[in-house]
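USER:
Make up one protein:

ASSISTANT:
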Amino acid sequence: MATSSGEHSACACWRLVPCGNGIILEQEARRAGVLVAQWLRPAHVSMAHIVTEGCINCKYTCCVSVCPTDCFREGPNFLAIDQSECVDCAMCARECPAGAVHPSRAAPIGSCHFARINMELAMLWPAVRARRDRLRCADRWRSVRRKIHLLRI
């Protein structure tokens, strides 16, 4: 988003963009010199609940087992919430042992880009409707911060 001085806020660069055979964060694409088209940078996303960085490499699915609408989508090492399915009941946020699910309006500082990440990944990944075993490395990664570079699409 542009500020009154015309500069972009920190969250403006946290968008997923196509790159080769996959998708990467726009900030990483720019750092690597990949040209990013303006139309790939949509406006602010409003969501009820979002899964944030705490889920990366953990993927506890306690949140899935309490969701009344099956709004969770499953990727290799992360879960995302499909906003079109979420009814904002907040049951998932209370269940997550990693503390990774938050109302988007009260997400931790520096996590605003996860609204866009959840929206885009929810379109790519299949629904997960039942609790599954957490990743083997979950307990080791649970308290680690700054894991965005580990997100696998």
Observations:
- The chain has two domains: 10-42, 44-135.
